[in-house]
Prior knowledge:
By secondary structure, this protein is mainly α.
Amino acid sequence: MSIATSVTSTMTAGGTRRVERGGRPPERAEREDTRARILAEAVELFAANGFASTTTRELAEQMGFTKAALYYHFRTKDDLLAALVEPVVAEIAALAGAPSRDTPHPDGDVGRVGLLAGYLDLVAAHRRVFRVLYQDPAVGRNEKVKAIVREGYTPLVEALRVPGQDPVTARTRVRAALGSIHAALADDTPEEDLPLVRAAALVAACGALGINCADPAQPMTVIQPRPAKG
């Protein structure tokens, strides 16, 4: 049941009826909902205009807030950026099986293809966050965000690397594979067939790793882009 529909009411000691959403005290519910709205507005502005170019004043005005009200939820713009990135990076770490996995995937190439496919879906679901992460140089220089990203990506890189290669080559090929996914899904292009983009991106990522690209969701089927019409 969603927060919007999960509404209960309780009576206070003084007989005043207080409404709770999802079992949360009203003040907490309002605070969390406002925080979520700020994050949603922020990722749109950061993706469209760049993190460095977006001011807290612009964000506050977009929300109809004062800057002081915005600072109540996020003390700095860096804190806001970190709050956007952290849950996505947590998904990346979970995909790789962090924190226990620090070796190549135990299921070999089939496991690596599954990881790449899962990562593709994750990037597709959070396109704007990834656009902020990888298309704004200011974000790349942010030490707090770099530390968060490193913690999440390290287990993924280790799980994807192919044994038998020297460490530099193996990790470089993993970065190339992930980079091809970022590039393929970097822009919102409504006219493009997303499943076809996904298939082509998976082929490209597997090629960067040098592995066979059989889709684990379709056993014995090799994903290939469809030929262009005409």
